[in-house]
Amino acid sequence: MTRSETGNWEWICVARLVGTLLEVRCMADFTLLRELTTTADTKIVLLVMDGLGGVPKEPGGPTELESAHTPNLDRLAVESMLGLSIPIGHGITPGSGPGHLALFGYDPVKFLIGRGVLEALGIGFEVAPDDVAARGNFCTVDDNLLITDRRAGRIPTEKCAELVNKLRTIRVPQVEIFVEPVQDYRFVLVFRGKNLSPRLNETDPQRTGHQALEVKAQAEDAHKTAEMANRWIAAAREILKGEQRANMVTLRGWAKEPGLPKFTDIYRLKAQALAVYPMYKGLASLVGMDVLQGLRSLGDQLRALKANWEDYDFFFVHYKYTDSRGEDGNFEAKAAEIEKVDAAIPRLLDLKPDVLIVTGDHSTPAVWKAHSWHPVPTLLYAPRLGRRNEVKGFGETQCQAGVLGQFPAVDLMPLALAYAGRITKFGA
Amino acid sequence: MTRSETGNWEWICVARLVGTLLEVRCMADFTLLRELTTTADTKIVLLVMDGLGGVPKEPGGPTELESAHTPNLDRLAVESMLGLSIPIGHGITPGSGPGHLALFGYDPVKFLIGRGVLEALGIGFEVAPDDVAARGNFCTVDDNLLITDRRAGRIPTEKCAELVNKLRTIRVPQVEIFVEPVQDYRFVLVFRGKNLSPRLNETDPQRTGHQALEVKAQAEDAHKTAEMANRWIAAAREILKGEQRANMVTLRGWAKEPGLPKFTDIYRLKAQALAVYPMYKGLASLVGMDVLQGLRSLGDQLRALKANWEDYDFFFVHYKYTDSRGEDGNFEAKAAEIEKVDAAIPRLLDLKPDVLIVTGDHSTPAVWKAHSWHPVPTLLYAPRLGRRNEVKGFGETQCQAGVLGQFPAVDLMPLALAYAGRITKFGA
Question: CB-based burial of residue B307 (10 Å sphere; 0-12 exposed, 13-18 middle, 19+ buried)?
Answer without folding.
Answer: exposed
